[in-house]
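hi! just following up on the protien thing from before. the input was this:
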Amino acid sequence: MYIKDDICYAGELQENIKVTEAKPLRGGMMLITFSTGEKRLFDTTMLIGEAFKPLAEEKIFRSPVLTHGVITWNQGEIDIAPEFVYKNSYAYDSMAI
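and the predicted 3d structure came back as:
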């Protein structure tokens, strides 16, 4: 955990990492592209708590919006730090498919 600009974040600080693309897939999975150029798979079903329950609705899950490099849903009511997404995602090799 760390604090930056008076905001508390989970995970470790990854300086200047941002999400540049978030593509919803099936089963709550997303293909995420980061500002480093790296693509990774992120499982949104791991997000627990009342704040993330709306993501169970397909219409909301399939409508992410990027706001300053952060994935948001539901008109900004739901967001998730890019550092958390990076740390809790898996390497994606497009050549393996």
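The mean pLDDT is 89.
The first strand starts at residue 2 and ends at 4.
cheers
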